[in-house]
Please model this.
Amino acid sequence: MAARIRKPTPPTKPLVKQRVRVGRMDAVAAVGELRQLHEGAADPDVERMPADDETYSALLYAEKHAGALRRLSPEQQRAAALKRVQLWQYLREQSEVHQARAVDDARAAGAEWQDLAPALAVKAASAAYNKAKRLQAATLMDDDPDAQPVRRTPEAVVATEQRRIRQRNAERRAQDAAQQRHPLLMPVAQRLLQHRDDLVLDEDAEYWLDEVAEVLSNCSTPTQVVSLSRYLAAAVRALTNLERRTARPAATTDDAHLALAAAAELVTR
Model:
């Protein structure tokens, strides 16, 4: 039987599973726990242990003085060793994020990829570029922990950066459009809410009108204006869909009909 040929994974394909990471942790508290273990073991040099916020130096101390914990129970010795492992992993993850930011600063200061090659422990400018992009995968996850994990390839990082640029540009265009409608947006939304009792509502329409009322109570920033525009559009869409389903007008009075018509005209501009 012929061997099954495994197709290579596209370099920009998102990861299916999140990488297992230590992520955010209270490193100061963790070092404090190590200190307590050394104090409990009567480590004669514990006063020389670096401060709790000096994670790297404290870990070097704990490694050098691990033998001082022999007076502790096997469980406590194991807990101390595991805590060191976790803290080293935490530092490793953090170092990727901070090294990537340092690369960005170096590039902003005019450093060429060839200049960065020895600093990144590679031999060529192209290798420095590729390594820097792989490091940036960690920063992209750090910025948005809930986002889809980014594959550690230059292609995946570039694709993610380009997608974020498109998202920011789209958000900016939405803000500009909402600001242009802003002089009419608030009074139109207020008018629709004034005639809410004269509208036939379903659960969907109720929800979006509640959202309109919530943001309308304090609508001053560009983001809030965009939210108001989107919520009003969703409310109009829900009312329009309700009319189609029931074959009856959503407004039961002339004033409510005019308020709904004005809102529909505004959000479709």
